[in-house]
Amino acid sequence: MVSRDIIAVHWSQSRFGNPVLVIGGQRYRRCGQIVYGRGTWRCIKSDLGCKSYAITQFNHVIAVGNSHTSHNKKKIVSRNKKRKNLFYSKIRINGKGL
Ligand SMILES: [Zn+2]
After folding, report:
1. What is the mean pLDDT of the segment spanning 51-67?
2. Arch. (CATH architecture) of 9-94
3. Which residues have their alpha-adjacent CB atom under 5 A from ion ligand 1?
4. Phi-psi bin for 49: left (phi > 0), alpha (psi -120 to 50), beta?
5. What is the pLDDT of residues 35-58, one digit of tens each?
6. Which positions fall inside the FLYWCH-type domain (predicted)?
């Protein structure tokens, strides 16, 4: 499905210096290399399960596929617990009563 709506498109850069494509306020990151001027971009939320992608050719967006999904999913936060455990084991290691 290719949207016929006029959507604002611009190029940007992530804070790591990687190219970012912004289509209608949604950010895409490049997936693979540009081949014969054609690049494939995947939604920045693709690791949350979003299947949206865009195809560009010579810096023009020629196709946008799939609508955005899964943007509101939150990654399971279990790191705080791990950090706590680390903290306690550190105290134990530092103790000199062993
Ligand atoms: Zn998306």
Report:
1. 94
2. Single Sheet (2.20)
3. 43, 45, 50, 52, 68
4. left
5. 999 999 999 999 999 999 999 999
6. 13-69
